[in-house]
Structures are given as C-alpha cells and as structure tokens.
Design brief:
Belongs to the glycosyltransferase 1 family. Bacterial/plant glycogen synthase subfamily. The protein is of the alpha/beta class. The chain is built from 19 helices and 18 strands.
Length: about 500
C-alpha cells in the first residue's frame, strides 16, 4: 500500500466557498480526485467575508499576533470532502467586493499585502510553525501565492523546508509591485536581485514563484510550450526556458459529479449521450433567460466568458454580422471590461431577439448555457487551459476554439479526416483573427445543416474523458517524486 503524501495547496479562491473563475473550480475539484491516489490535499485560502459567513464554527488552530498590520487566526474546516485552512484576518480580507477588487471593480490598493500574507502563512505552515499540520509538499497557485516559495527560501534559516510547486494558471496576471514594498513584505535586501524576486526593477510575485519553486506546472502541455517563448512568455519566457527541465504541463479536468447532464439539477431537462433530444428543452429555456426569440430549430451560438481582449470578445462582436447572416442566434453571459460590456449591450439593442446577453455570472445560468447552446465560442488569443470547452464536450455543445494553449490540447477538429475516423469533437481555427473566426462560424453552420453528422460530433465530445483521472495520476507522480527526493538540486545550488 502506498504511503500517503500530505500537500498544502495555497490558493486565492476555492469552489464551493469563493469563486471568480476557473482557478476556484480547479482548486476545489483536483483534491477530490487525488484522494484515491493516496494524496491528501489541505487547501489554504484567505478568510474573505463569504468564507467567514459559510464557516462560522470553524476551529482555530493557530494565532498570529501581527500578520501584516493586525492579529489573525488560522482556522480549519471540512467542506464537501475538502480539508480547508483559512486565514481569519479581518483587516485584510473581511470587506465587500470580490477577492481582488472593490465594489467599483478597482483593485484593492493593499493587494500586495493581502496576498503576501497568504503566501507568508503558507510558508509558515510549510516550515512547521503551525503545530497542528506540517505538509510534505507546498503547492502555490498563480501570482497571489507566488511569494510562497520565496518565503520558504528566505525564512528557512537552517530548517528543512518542504519542496515547493508553482502552478501557472494564467501568465498574463503576474502581480508586479513597487520595490519600496520589499521591507513591508518582510523580505531581505538580497531578495531584490535578478536571481531573487526582482522583476524589471519592481517586485514580481509570479516571478518569485517561478524562481524559487522546485517544480513549475502549467495547466496544459501546449501552454507549457507557449510560455517558454518570447511572445507567450510575457516577459518571463527566458526564466521559464532556463528552467524548462522543471516545467510540466498537466491538463485541467472537471468534476464530473458536478458537471453531468444526466443528473444536473441546474438545467431545465436532463439528458445523456444516448438520449440527447431533451437538449432542445434547455435551448428554449436558455433563449428565454437571455432574451432571445424562442426557437429550438435555429442554430444557437453561446459564449460564457470574461469579457476581455484575451478572450477575443472584440472578435466575436466584429464577426456578428456574418454569424447572424447564417440565420443563427448568439447568447452571451459574462462580465469584465466595462467597454466590452457596453459593446455587448449595444449589440443586443442593434439585433433584438437575435443576440441575448446577461452581464454577470451565476452557476445555474452557466450550466444552462452548456446544456442549451448548440455551439460554444472560445476565440481566445491565448488560453492556458480553459474549462468551458471541457464542460461543452460533456454537455454536447460543440466547442469552436482558437488553436492555442489548452484549447488545442482538448478539442479535436472535425475536419474531413477526423470525421472519417469518427474522432472529431469540435471546430478549431488559427490564427485567432476575425476572419478565421468567421470562417469557423461558417463551418459550424454547414455542419448544423447535416443533423446526422452534427449528432456524431456531439456524441464524440460527450464520450471524451474530461475528468481529472489521468491528470490526477500525473500530479500524484509529481508529488511522490518530490516527497521522496526532498528539495531538489535547484535549492542546493543556491545554498
């Protein structure tokens, strides 16, 4: 029998307690699939206001007299099979808005302090300063936890530190702050160097994680390649390339218990791969919810996304005349850049009954989109992995994706050869431009006019294994390797 390995996951959001995007879904589902592999994950998150409200009776296991400007408690709870530690620090986290922004969608000015605190507590736990729990591995996620490996390095002070993993969910968000914060963050002067946390004259949270982690993972193999390039590396490509032997791309998965059209209580009608006709009921329900003309026979494109340049929303808006010219409808759910939100609303006004939108997001509507849209648009200019296309495959909505990052890794283009072999699951296009998106939309419209072929592509997608099973085994292998080896040669060379 394999010896269990204990891992501390340091992350800024976690489903079902707090969610703004896919990071929360990943952090909340992967631990459940690692349990059968003998990996025990304990997740450390900030004690935001919604977290405090949901866990009022959580046990206190440690006190911090002064955590970046105020007292704090480390509290423990169990939710839905997840082992959770959260930092109850009202001066840092008990406030309205999102985990990252105020009610006006502006970044909290003390975000570097708030997430340095998350990292510092993660490092303290890793170094054995919390008697109730000492993990064998510390796993940090994205820039908000990026200082964790740096604190482990600089604060070890002769103690044996656990190996650290840094996972990049999106390299575009790096956490860059003024160098004057160095002492406030509790880091020594020598940290402000090219082989430390210094990044173009400032402090780089994500750069720190990439510099000091023993292993670096990304959320798809293709994205692991892309971030080691000049263009895809977004200023960090050289560092990633220098450490390429320590970089591993592991695809995200989804929790198939939550995302299952045959048992999903958030949709209008349940269905499965062999009984797909009830999707029409979901389609009409979706049309009603977003303000479209109700017609189960019209081709319905869906888009559920952050409304940002990265996600290619401007390309969708530019392609609308052609898409609507095929006779199709478009349903949009999301929020993001104010200018793009306005542009989406303007499109709804210009094409009443043909374009429908809901600015914002809720879980029920997200499920209904997957169950009701015929095709899901994902024209991202870059995409580390993406979960939307995985949900789409599971729910029989044909993904229309730019051939980048994890979209490339997870969707098989239904070209002529793939159709002949019976393996196509969606439509890919490249490069991510308006013209190529329009071409892809025309291909989708052509496929829609061939119902038998459309059903085959749907069923191919619904057969695809989009769970965490394969990826969980890869993570388990990585954790076991590090647990057996201890801190690797990277740390030994720095000593």
């Amino acid at each position: 029998m394999r010896t269990p390995v204990s891992v501390l996951s340091v992350v800024s959001e976690l489903y079902p307690l707090i969610k703004t995007g896919g990071l929360a879904d990943v952090a909340g589902s992967l631990p459940l699939f690692l349990k059968p592999e003998g990996i025990k994950i304990t997740s450390l998150i900030p004690g935001y206001r919604p977290v405090l409200a949901k866990l009022p009776d959580a046990e206190t296991i440690h006190h911090f007299d002064d955590l970046f400007g105020g007292p704090a408690r480390l509290r423990r709870a169990e939710v839905g099979g997840l082992d959770i530690l959260f930092i109850d620090a009202p001066h840092l986290y008990d406030r309205p808005g999102t985990p990252y922004t105020n009610e006006e969608k502006e970044d909290w000015p003390d975000n570097p302090i708030r997430f340095a605190a998350l990292s510092a507590v993660g490092a303290a736990i890793g170094l054995g300063e919390v008697a109730a729990f000492k993990p064998e591995i510390v796993h940090a996620h994205d820039w908000q936890a990026g200082l964790t490996p740096a604190y482990l390095h600089y604060r070890a002070a002769g103690r044996v530190r656990p190996p650290a993993i840094m996972t990049v969910h999106n390299l575009a968000f790096q956490g860059q702050y003024a160098p004057e914060l160095l002492s406030t963050l509790g880091l020594p002067p020598e940290a402000m160097g090219v082989d430390g946390i210094e990044y173009y004259g400032g402090i780089g949270f994500l750069k720190a994680g990439l510099q000091f982690a023993d292993r670096i993972t990304t959320v798809s193999p293709k994205y692991a390649e892309e971030i080691s390039t000049l263009q895809g590396g977004m200023g960090l490509g050289g560092l990633v390339r220098d450490r390429i032997g320590d970089v591993l791309g592991i695809l995200n998965g989804i929790d198939e218990n939550v995302w299952d059209p045959s048992t999903d209580n958030l949709i209008a009608a349940k269905f499965d791969r062999l009984h797909i006709k009830p999707r029409r009921i979901n389609k009409v329900a979706l049309q009603r919810r977003v303000g479209l003309r109700e017609d189960a026979d019209v081709l319905l494109f869906g888009l559920v996304s952050r409304l940002t340049w990265q996600k290619g929303i401007d390309m969708v808006l530019d392609a609308l005349p052609l898409i609507l010219g095929t006779g199709a409808q478009v349903a949009i759910i999301g929020q993001g850049d104010r200018a793009m939100e306005r542009a989406v609303r303007d499109a709804v006004t210009a094409y009443p009954g043909r374009i429908g939108c809901v600015i914002g997001y809720d879980e029920e509507l997200g499920h209904l989109m997957q169950a009701g849209a015929d095709a899901l648009l994902l024209p991202s200019r870059f995409e580390p992995c993406g979960l939307t296309q995985l949900y789409a495959l599971r729910y029989g909505s044909i993904p229309v994706v730019a051939r980048v990052g994890g979209l490339s890794d997870t969707v098989i283009d239904a070209n002529e050869m793939a159709r002949a072999e019976g393996i196509g699951t969606g439509v890919q296009f490249h490069p991510p431009t308006v013209e190529m998106l329009e071409s892809a939309a025309l291909r989708v419209a052509s496929l829609w006019r061939k119902p038998a072929l459309w059903r085959r592509i749907q069923r191919n997608g619904m057969r695809t294994d989009v769970s965490w099973r394969r990826s969980a085994r890869l993570y388990a292998e990585l954790y076991r390797e590090l647990a057996e080896d201890g801190p690797n040669a990277v740390e030994a060379l720095r000593a």
